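Q: Got a minute? One more chain.
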Amino acid sequence: AEQAKEVKLRTDYQAKLAKAVNLEVLKKQREQVLQYVTQLEKQLPSKAEMDALLSDINQAGLGRSLQFELFRPGAVVVRDYYAELPIAIRVTGKYHDMGAFASDIANLSRIVTLNNLTVSPKPDGNLVMEATAKTFRYLDTEEIQAQRKAGAKK
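A: Always. Here it is, folded:
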């Protein structure tokens, strides 16, 4: 019985020693992950910054000589920790201008994606691009609390 206890204690000791040896590495990894999360969070605008982001998207199109036929923000879709804002867009212009516009959108400081993208020709030689631009923003504290309450009711 004493030998079994000794074997168990040695095994426990070795397991805890291995964890202790890795503790510094794990702390460094945790710090790196937290820095990465902070960096990603900076790409999510707050409610107050959304208007500026919508203006940036609009300016990206106008700066590429595209004509906006439609720019309609949709209903906000609230997720666990963020909100998604779809924006229906329809622009007319030249092929390379549309490509440059898509590149400009990708290079914005905030996260914006172009989804359900279709490009079709117009009789005048220009193209029409229809897409849903989706941008994402952080939920504020009140919205997170409302989400938690709603989740608790389920």
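A: The chain has two domains: 1-41, 47-144.
Q: Perfect, thanks.
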